[in-house]
Amino acid sequence: MTLRIEQKSQQGRVVLRLIGQIHFEDLGDFKAQTLAAGPGMAFDLDELTLVDAGVVRYLSECEDRGVDLLNCPPYIREWIKREKNRQ
Length: 87
Prior knowledge:
Strand order of the largest sheet: 1-2-3-4
Shape: globular
Number of helices: 3
Structural class: alpha/beta
Radius of gyration: 12 Å
Distance between the termini: 28 Å
Largest sheet: 4 strands, mixed
Number of strands: 4
Mean pLDDT: 89
């Protein structure tokens, strides 16, 4: 996995800044790391450079559960939209 996660507190919630790349095979490790952040968290995707379809589906599921996707790159936002339309 070539993903770095930086955690910060912003406006009373945990924001996980995702930097680099994440692939579907790495989701198990990523999920374990994000569980510690607790409810009401947000992902800052500004420096997320590469994802695959499995990760996009997971980000969509997170968003449906109330996780905010901050600074979501347009290509990821469009991909999430297309995945939701497919379902």
